[in-house]
Amino acid sequence: MTAFSRRHFVSTAAAGTSALWLAGSRTAWAAAGPVPTEHPDIDVHERTVRDAAMTWRTLPTGWQEAPFLANGRLGAQLYAGTTANTLKLMISHSQVQDQRGQWRGGIGFSRLPIGYFTLTLAGEITAVDWTLDLYDAELRGTVTTTRGSLAFSALVHNDTGALLVSTRPTPGEETAAWSFQWLRAATTRTSGRPEDYTPNPDPRTGDGFVEQPLLAGGGWTTAWRERREGTGRLLAAHLVYRFPGRVSEATADALRAVDRTLATEPDRLVERHRRWWHAYYRRSFLSVPDKRLQSFYLIQLYKLAASTRADGPTISEWGPWFPEVGNNWTAVWWNLNVQIGMAPIHGSNHPELDSVTGAFRRFEHNLPASVPADHRDGESYALGHPSDWQLRAGDTYDVGAPGSSHVSDNFGNLTWALHNVWQSYRHSMDLSVLRDVVYPILAKAINFYAHFLHEGPDGRLHLPETRSPEYANASDCTYDLSLIRWGVRTLIASAQLLRNGDPRLKRWQDIERRLAPYAEDPAAGVMIGKDVPLAGSHRHHSHLLWLYPLRERSWDRAGDREVMRRSMDHWVSMQELWHGYSYATASSMYSSMDEPEKALDFLALFTDLNVVADCAMTVNTMYREGRNLALESPLSAAQSMLDMVVQSHEGVVKVFPSVSERWADASIASLRTQGAFLVDADRSGGATRWVRVRSEAGAPLTLDHSVTGRIEVRDAHGRPLRWRETGPGRITLALPRGATAVITPRGAPRPRTVPRDVPSNGTWTRWGLPE
């Protein structure tokens, strides 16, 4: 097909085929069905993402079942309204929060409810047929009632932040219309709410807007308009938040934004929106035979881009959505949640989502406030939680001090979060990330710990009592020691790389050399801390951080294996109190320990909608703990899948290191590793057919290629490259910046190194409510 006919096909298919939709109409862009992915002119990236679409044939009743839309800031979910003839479109925004810092972050900087649009229909709803098309980031479908039906499309525009909903009713539903209901601007958090807490005042309402002031100043405005053409309607809504500033300015800006949106042809807006999302999915590729898991992975990529962007807020527990029922976690949690939820952005090659690095770049100045006043020496940082997206935990809250009367589980938050930023450096080799973010902040995070290290009779440096998150207090707590050890080793290596003559280097080297070892049990492995064993089920892997993700010990070193196995076996033997992320983390740990079957088993246990400890994956791949929404568990399971197909650690890139025998085929493209390598590979019939590695930074490459037998190594043009074997299945070669190496079995025909959607190993059920 010509380029013109290709574009015409895709735009026609995405718009649907219903004659009710009029080309060029101001209400026209809309839907009536998915793009036919069997068309030969649709490439593999588009086909696999569209095939992962979520579907609803049953009306969802709340956030645990509903489709979700967002652009990293404004979020929306559609589900049943309060009556049989209504739908509720709940909206929320990741920047809309309170600003009363006199209280701890979860209250004083709490995310605040906004409101919802109600679509009122003439008849009672009898059926729905909805599709959340991940590739276009649009929700499309029909609603059938006792009086007729209504077709619709909805999106949160990637660039402008507009909520757009286009509707077209059949006869009998011509009166279907939208209205807006504001929600009280008060924290929904009950834990720790002070007695003198006062909700923010009621809003001022006007023609097409709700202006919500804050007691602390500023506020936000939700504005909307409908454009009608015949019986069709196009709803456009914007939300503008101002703090500091005047809420009247937010109102003026929101109303202007709505007018601009409605003055623009809908097709032009939609084309811009789709262009971003289509490019997003082309940055990497992963296909496995389990199509339900493949779909799950792609939904998590969609969820990540919907939740956060590098220039915006990092993920809170809700992301940009508001859970109408179950909403106690009103801010940003740093003792595990952000760290594991944001982990997949690196391997999936999505640095444009790196809001963790962005947060530390922009808001480092807020970190001293979490340090106790007695230790604010200008050279110490800490990070309390919950905080807001600007790293503020509340004016009157600090993390406390090891060995004091105020011991919290917050001491390691900052160092662990900086491990995520360090991963950004290692996956990009962008020296500015190391020099300007990791190094200066990590130095002050470790300096905070260094205040409390003391020399014992054994000559070792010991840490007084701290708290292993969610378990127990202990001296020489493994959680904190592991972060200190990683931190000083990273600082030492960074100082040598940066050649900055840092006078603190000798102190870091002394800490690295003399830091106390982890307390161990001969049978149970590494303990919580000195004299504190892991005596019961523990959902948090805090005492195993050294194993994963810090990977202080390596399965490649035979001397490390025994303690890794003992420690892992003991933790896994007590799963009664595990939550979703416990299973995802166990999967990743087993992948790092050459246990692919166990890795897949634990991933399947979590994603098969099993209920554990009153927690479960939901049908829309959200996750509930009790009644609360928490994003990090399913996102961390996406990292579990990445750990199966590519790993990079200590300068070694591993291809298909932990792929189950149940996955005879797999295909990957542009997965990013440490050293700034992009890896493509294909596995067929249980054997690796080819591997391609592209270097963005010119770092030395040591590669576990997983190709059986003798190999050939060639460049992108088929010319032989020099390499040397450094172990079974492992080679080392120089790969300059921009160069490519292709590894194949010796004598095999030159492969067509393109990704493919591998065959399914069985039937599968779509996510959503497909029946």
From TrEMBL:
Residues 302-611 form the Glycosyl hydrolase family 95 catalytic domain. Gene3D superfamilies: 1.50.10.10. Coiled coil: none annotated. Residues 747-771 are annotated as: Disordered. InterPro entries: 6-hairpin_glycosidase_sf, 6hp_glycosidase-like_sf, GH95_cat, TAT_signal. Keywords: Signal. Pfam families: Glyco_hydro_95_cat. Residues 1-30 form the signal peptide. The keyword Signal applies. The keyword Signal applies. PROSITE patterns: TAT. This is Glycoside hydrolase family 95-like protein. It comes from Streptomyces sanglieri.
